[in-house]
């Protein structure tokens, strides 16, 4: 365009033509009369959805719960980093979704926006996704900016921190309202998750509500019970994997699985010995009396040194010097199936819901058989990874076979396995239940030497939001890895 303008000006000068105002001429030439001045809501939704895989598969969460271990650079395994940033969510996904809400609410723009789905449906989807992101964030940092967040247009540039309890209450209310506001009109465009299927968006919201409700099992069981049952009544995903919520990746670089991208540049992610040993042994260290967990060959590659016949986990939480002394051929890396370019990123699964319902029975929140829900959850997880035919044998294993006396431990352990690579979700469940029984990194670098129970705020907060930062630290506790968040009373 710049070259075109240059050539036009040269032609005008050559003809001796004088323009009264070159500035006006430049504006007329460079302004496209057919271009919209209003953001396209379908594009904003797509952009927000594309951020989900990175959120789910973020590497630090995998390390906290000892799914993975680094084979070379182990500082993340040993809890060196204290402060983690959430700024990208506020300026990216959350802001994109807030713009969708604004454009579908404003009388001057809502008609144009409705070309991408009914106004109510677009607002509902945006609110559901925002709630999902806020849930992820509050489970990592505790108190976060919430009620005053995303209000720059109102002059709020330094938002206050809401208590985690207030954030949870807001999430529950927003998810319920979002489901209720869906109007039966046109489904949303730009929806690369469900293709505009509003029934699935309802189930996404209700499943997120169920997961959030169980977080309150220790701190506010009455509220948790109420929200859990409301979610089930409103309709969660099916129990047979047919409605597992996953992000579909493609066999091309722009939309590939994050693990494929990571392995392209860095072959460093091995499966931790904690997980591998559990999947091959009973809790007391003896060999499984039937067979190893049939999911292990999916989760991990067999070692090169064993001629690809054995699975050996990388010793978790060691120093870089120790890690460097362990040959890569002697440990199992993340399984090829899990890091394939087109492998899906699972967000919510039937197994996760069924394990939650098994625990809810034990808590007295719902009726039914905890054993049946537990067994169904294991079957669903095995089916999810293509090894369902091994269920009849696997379920008879002494470590796995349901024992009512230790049901909560078994549910927690098997849920941990089923949530593989959904690291931050598994970390939240470990903090809430204490299962599985994890041992801290051998070379832990944080002050307590224990597994972190929260993450520190981004360094921009004390620098740019000093008063509110000081207030939240005074209320919640030290801004480090060892301060428990509100629902973590275990």
TrEMBL record:
Alphabetical UniProt keywords: Lipoprotein, Signal
Signal sequence coordinates: 1-20
SUPFAM superfamilies assigned to the protein according to its UniProt record, in alphabetical order: TPR-like
Keyword DNA-binding: no
The keyword Signal belongs to this UniProt entry's keyword annotation: yes
InterPro entries (alphabetical): SusD-like_2 (IPR041662), TPR-like_helical_dom_sf (IPR011990)
Name by which UniProt lists this protein: SusD/RagB family nutrient-binding outer membrane lipoprotein
Organism of origin: Splendidivirga corallicola
Lineage: Bacteria, Pseudomonadati, Bacteroidota, Cytophagia, Cytophagales
């Amino acid at each position: 365009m710049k070259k075109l303008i240059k050539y036009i000006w040269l032609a005008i000068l050559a003809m001796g033509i004088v323009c009264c105002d070159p500035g006006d001429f430049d504006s007329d030439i460079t302004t496209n009369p057919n271009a919209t001045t209003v953001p396209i809501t379908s594009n904003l939704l797509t952009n927000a959805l594309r951020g989900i895989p990175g959120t789910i598969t973020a590497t630090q969460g995998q390390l906290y719960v000892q799914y993975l271990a680094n084979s070379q650079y182990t500082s993340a395994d040993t809890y060196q980093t204290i402060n983690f940033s959430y700024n990208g969510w506020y300026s990216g996904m959350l802001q994109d979704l807030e713009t969708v809400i604004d454009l579908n609410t404003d009388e001057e723009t809502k008609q144009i926006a409705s070309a991408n789905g009914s106004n109510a449906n677009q607002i509902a989807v945006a609110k559901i996704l925002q709630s999902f992101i806020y849930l992820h964030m509050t489970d990592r940092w505790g108190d976060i900016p919430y009620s005053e967040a995303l209000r720059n247009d109102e002059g709020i540039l330094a938002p206050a921190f809401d208590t985690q309890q207030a954030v949870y209450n807001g999430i529950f209310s927003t998810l319920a309202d979002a489901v209720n506001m869906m109007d039966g009109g046109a489904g949303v465009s730009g929806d690369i998750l469900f293709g505009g299927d509003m029934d699935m968006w309802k189930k996404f919201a209700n499943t997120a509500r169920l997961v959030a409700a169980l977080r309150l099992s220790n701190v506010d069981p009455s509220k948790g019970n109420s929200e859990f049952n409301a979610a089930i009544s409103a309709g969660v995903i099916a129990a047979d994997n047919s409605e597992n919520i996953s992000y579909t990746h493609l066999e091309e670089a722009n939309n590939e699985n994050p693990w494929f991208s990571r392995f392209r540049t860095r072959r460093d992610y091995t499966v931790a010995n904690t997980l591998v040993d559990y999947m091959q042994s009973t809790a007391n260290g003896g060999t499984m009396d039937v067979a190893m967990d049939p999911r292990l060959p999916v989760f991990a590659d067999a070692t090169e040194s064993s001629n690809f016949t054995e699975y050996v986990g990388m010793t978790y939480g060691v120093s870089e010097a120790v890690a460097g002394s362990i040959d890569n051929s002697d440990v199992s890396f993340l399984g090829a199936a899990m890091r394939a370019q087109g492998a899906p990123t699972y967000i919510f699964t039937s197994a996760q819901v069924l394990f939650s319902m098994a625990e809810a029975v034990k808590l007295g929140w719902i009726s039914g058989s905890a054993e049946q829900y537990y067994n169904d959850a294991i079957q669903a997880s095995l089916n999810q990874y293509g090894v369902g035919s091994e269920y009849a044998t696997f379920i008879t294993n002494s470590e796995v076979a349901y024992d009512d006396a230790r049901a909560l431990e078994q549910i927690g352990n098997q849920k941990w396995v089923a949530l593989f690579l959904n690291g931050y979700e598994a970390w939240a469940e470990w903090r809430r239940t204490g299962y599985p029984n994890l041992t801290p990194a051998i070379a832990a670098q944080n002050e307590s030497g224990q597994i972190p129970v929260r993450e520190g705020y981004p360094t921009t907060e004390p620098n740019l939001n000093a008063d509110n930062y000081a207030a939240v630290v005074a209320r919640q506790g030290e801004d480090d890895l060892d301060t428990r968040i509100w629902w973590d009373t275990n």
